[in-house]
Each structure stands twice: as structure tokens, then as C-alpha cells.
Amino acid sequence: MSPLSSGPVSNLLNSFQQANPNIPIEVVDGHCDGWCNCDQLFGPLDEGDRDAVLSILNDRLASKFATQALFKIPYMLAVPADHRFAQRQAVSAGDLAGERLILPERCVYMLDVTNALASLGVRANVVYRTDNDDRALALVAAGFGLALVPGHFEIAGVKQVPVPDLAITRTIGLVWPRERENGDVKEFIAFAESHRWAA
């Protein structure tokens, strides 16, 4: 899935290729339309054109394909390095009242964030919605607002601070057709499961 940070994925592929130089790998970026319509990612699995997909796991995927969770990514509050929250170890959802917020536009993820804020009595002052984490972080660095983003991207001038009472995370894992769980694919799945993820 293309929005995932390239560092952890690159480390996995490099480590696997070094340990298994005779197993060929071809990597293809895929994207979900708003992270709701993921035909570009999972259609090729159905058609036999891809062996596995690295993606955010959910119940719908688990009902159709075999899955293996690899690591979790918490949603963090991205703030400018000179913002008063930047020196804190954590902030509460209540601290976000009145702040200019940049929120995810991705269907279920946007709902998770807005529902979590509403359940805690926080009225969000949303100034921008985007499904592009790099854009959200660039706007934070420019002082346009604060963003709730998956905590695996880094950008100069931005500090990421936990918001424990929101407690929104995404589980990243592999997805593959059960009937093709053999040979090289099985080797890759086992390697990814035992890989040391620094998420």
C-alpha cells in the first residue's frame, strides 16, 4: 500500500533478499481510493497476479483472505516544533478543543477520529481534510494546523505527540490468497512475521 512509510518496508525487503537471494521479488505500489475502495490492491490477488499485499488489516479482508498481523501504528498528533504541545510527553483529546485540526479524509479512519473526539466531548475545528499524510505534515510544518496522522512518518520541523485517550491504531499486515500459501510465498510470510519491525 503506497501510503505506508517506505523505511520499514525497504528494511524488510532488503533483509529478505539477503537471506533468500534465489527468491525473486517484484514490488508494486498500490493505492486505495479513499482507503475504502481497494480494488487496485486486492483485485490482483483474486486474479492470481499478485502473491501478497502489505496493507492495513480489517475484518473484511480476514473473511476473504489469509492474513498475518506484523505491527501496529498509533495515530499521533503532529505539531510544529515550536508549538506549546511539542514539549509534552502526551496531550489529551480535551487539549485539542479550539485547535486548528487537519484530519484524515479516509472513510473509516476519518469516522474513527471524529467519533472518538465527539465521544470525549471535543468539537473539532477542522481546517483541512486530506488522504495524503505528507501533505498534512507539510501543512503542520508551515503552521497551518495540527494533524492526526499515523505515527510512522517523519518530517523536519514537526513533532509527533501521543493522544492516549483517542487510542486509535492501525494494524499493518500481509494479505494473501489461502490457496497460494506455499513455497516462496510461505517463506516470505514467515520471514515477515519474524522480522524486527521498528514501527
Textual characterization of the structure:
This protein is 32% helix and 24% strand. α4 (107-119) links the parallel β3 and β4 (125-130). Strands 1, 2, 3, 4, 5, 6 and 7 form a seven-stranded mixed sheet that branches. The protein starts with 5 loop residues before the first helix and ends in a 5-residue tail after the last helix. With 199 residues, it is an alpha/beta fold. The protein has helices at residues 6-19, 39-47, 59-64, 107-119, 133-141, 183-194; strands at 53-56, 66-80, 100-104, 125-130, 146-150, 158-162, 169-176. The chain is built from six helices and seven strands, in the order ααβαββαβαβββα. The longest helix has 14 residues, at 6-19.
Helix fraction? 25-40%
Task: Give the low-pLDDT segments.
Answer: none
Radius of gyration: 18 Å
Class by alpha and beta content = alpha/beta
Mean residue pLDDT: 84
Question: What is the percentage of strand-forming residues?
Answer: 15-25%
Write the layout of secondary structure elements.
Blueprint lengths: L5 H14 L19 H9 L5 E4 L2 H6 L1 E15 L19 E5 L2 H13 L5 E6 L2 H9 L4 E5 L7 E5 L6 E8 L6 H12 L5
Parallel strand pairs: 3-4, 3-5
Antiparallel strand pairs: 1-7, 2-5, 2-6, 2-7
Q: Short description, anyone?
A:
The protein is an alpha/beta fold. The protein is built from six helices and seven strands, in the order ααβαββαβαβββα.
